[in-house]
Structure formats: C-alpha cells, structure tokens
Amino acid sequence: MAQSSERTSRALELLRSLGRRSLQFQAVLADRGIATIKKKGHLLVVAPTGSGKTLISQLTVALLAQE
Fold first, then answer.
1. pLDDT tens column, 12-57
2. pTM score over 0.70
3. Residue 46 half-sphere exposure toward CB, CA atoms < 13 A
4. How many other C-beta atoms are found inside a 10 Å radius of the C-beta of residue 58?
C-alpha cells in the first residue's frame, strides 16, 4: 500500500499527465478518499461549485485502479 504523501504525489502527477490543472487539496482529498474506502467508511466533500469535487472522485477511482 502506498503511503499518503506518495499517493498525493501520484495524484498530482496523474493530473499533470492528463493536462489538468489541479489544486493541492484535490490530490490530498483523493488520497483521503482511498484511505476512507479501504476502511469501508464514508467521506463527504463540501466545496463550492466548480472547485473539482467530481475530479476528486474520479481521481480517487483512478488511483485505486493503479494499486
């Protein structure tokens, strides 16, 4: 299992490879999403419209697929 900082780095790297501009919080929340899924828990992300909530969920799934 990848460590948190390593997953966050991979998330940012993946977004850059797709030409997507990302804020650090999106990569961090994707990492938290993975940790939450592995604990069979729930994660609620509340953020303004257009801030990347859908991107966070897609990034979480993409990172899980790579593990």
1. 888 888 887 767 888 888 888 888 988 999 988 898 998 889 988 9
2. yes
3. 0
4. 12
